[in-house]
Amino acid sequence: MNFVTEKDASVPLGENGSVRVLVVDDEEENRSLMEEMLDIDGYLVKTASHGEEAMGWLKEMPFQVVVTDIMMPDMNGIQLLNCIKEISPQSLVILVTGYATLEKAIAAVKGGASGFLVKPFSGRELRASVQEAIKRKRIEEELVRFRSLATLVEVGQKLSSTLNRDDVAQEVVMAAARELRAQQVSLAALDEGVLRVKAGIGLAPDDLDTPRERGVEGLVALRQETLIVTGAGELPPWAREVARIDEPLACVPLKTQGKVLGVLKVSRGVGGESISPLEIEVLSALASQASIALDNARLFDEIKEKSNQLAEEKLILEKRLAEIAGLNRLFRWQQEKTQDVDRVREKIQALLMDALRALSTAMESRIPRAAGHSHGVAQIAYPFAEIVGLSPEAMMVAAYLHDVGKIRIPTDILLAATPGSPESGLLQQHPLLSVVVMGDLELPDDIVLAIRHHHENYDGSGYPDRLSGENIPLGARLLAVANSYEKLTAGRGQPPLSPQDALEIIVQQTGRWFDPLVVEAFKGVVDSYTKY
Hints:
The chain is built from 18 helices and 12 strands. The chain is an alpha/beta fold. It has a 5-stranded parallel beta sheet, with helices on both faces. Strands 9-8-12-11-10 form a 5-stranded antiparallel beta sheet, with helices on both faces. A two-stranded parallel sheet has the order 1-7. The radius of gyration is 33 Å and the shape is elongated. It starts with a strand and ends in a 9-residue tail after the last helix.
C-alpha cells in the first residue's frame, strides 16, 4: 500500500464536478484508493492500469489532470508524460514515485510535469497536489486571458480610429497571428458580392484578392457558423468536404446585424498544436471587433460617396448660378435671378437633409426602439430654434446628427445599456463619437457644439464635460429639451406620454437638467409646433 490512511472531513468542491482526472497505476489497490480519495472532492475519475490504456482514455475524452506512477512495466510514467504532451498538451500531469531525489523532481518539472508526489502519501496530500496543479493552471490561464484582453483593448482602439477597410483587415490579421501563434491567417471580405482575401500572413502571393466561395471561408460565410477544428476527433458533417481533420484551425464569420461582412481564418498547419478554448475566446472577441470596424469602414465609404455626390451636384448648381448671374447682369432680369437662386438653395438644402436623414435612419435601424427618433427631434427643434434666436436650419442638422456616434458602439451594448449598467459608460461616449464621425464634413461650430454637449445637465451632472448653466452652448440646451420631449411623447422604452404630461416632467426638471429660460420659451410652442 502506498497511502497513509487518515480520516478527512473535507467538503466536496462543487466546481470540481466538471474536472476529469485520470489515475494511472499498475497496482489495483493504489488505483482504487486514489479514485476514492479524489471522488471525495467531486472529481470525475477514470483509472488505467498501464500506459497504453491511459493513452486510449486520453484519445477518447479530454482530462484536465493525469496522476501517474513512474515505475510501471512496458511504458513508465516519464514516457507516458512525453506522450501526453503530444496528444493532450492541455492536461496537467502529476508524477508519483517511491524513490524521491531532488534531481528526479527537477527533471520531472523540466519534462513538463505539474506536480510530484512521493510514496507513501495521504489522501489529503493527493487532493492538495491535484488542487494546487489546477489552481496554478487557472492562474496561468487568467494571466494569459488578461494579457490577451489587454492586447485586444489596444487593437480595438486602433480599429476604432481606422476607417480604411484594407488597414482594418491588415491590423486584424496581425493581431490574430500574434495572439494565436498561427502559421497562416487570412481575412476574406465581401467585395461587390464576392468573398475575396484582403489580408493574410503565411499565404502565397497569389492567394491575396482571390475568391474563396468554394473553400472553408465560403462555407462558413454561407452558414454564418463558426468552424473549430481541434486536430483530433470528427469534423461536423457540413465541413467534411472542405476541411482536414489533422489541421487545427478556426474559421469565424465576421457579421453585424445578421449580415456577413467577411470571414477570419486561423490555421496552425497539419499536425500543429490544438487551438485551446481560451484562444477561441480571444479569437471570438477579435472577430467581434473586426466586424464593427469593417462595418464602420463600410458606412464611412457610403457617407463619403454621398458627400462626393453632393459636392458634384453643388458644383453644377453653382455653375448654373454663375450663368444666371451673368444673364441678370446683361439683361437685368433681377426677379428671375432671385427665383433661380432660391430654387438652387432649396435643392442644395433638400439634398443635404436627405443625406442626413439617410445617415440617422441607418444608425437607428440597429435599435428598433430608436427608429425615427432623430427625425422627431428635428421636427421639434426647427420651430423652437427661431424663438430662442438660433438658426432653425443649423438646429435641424444638429438634431439629425446628435446620435450618429452610436454607429461606433456595438449593437449588443446599445440594446443592453440601462442607467447605471456597465454598458452605460460606453454609451455615454456617443456625443464625442458623433463629433468624430462627422469630422470630415467641416460643420459650423454651433452645430458641432450642440451635438457634443446635448447631454450636459444645467446643474453640471451631465456628460461628457460636466458643463453647467450658461457654459453649456445654447444650441445644446435647446437640443436637450427637444431630445427629452421626443423620447417622452414617442414612448421610447416606456409608454408614451401626452404633450401636457411630457411638458410637466420637463418643467419639474427645470434648473436641474434644463435651462429655465429655454423651458419657458418651449412652453410657447409645445402645443402648436409645425412639422417640417
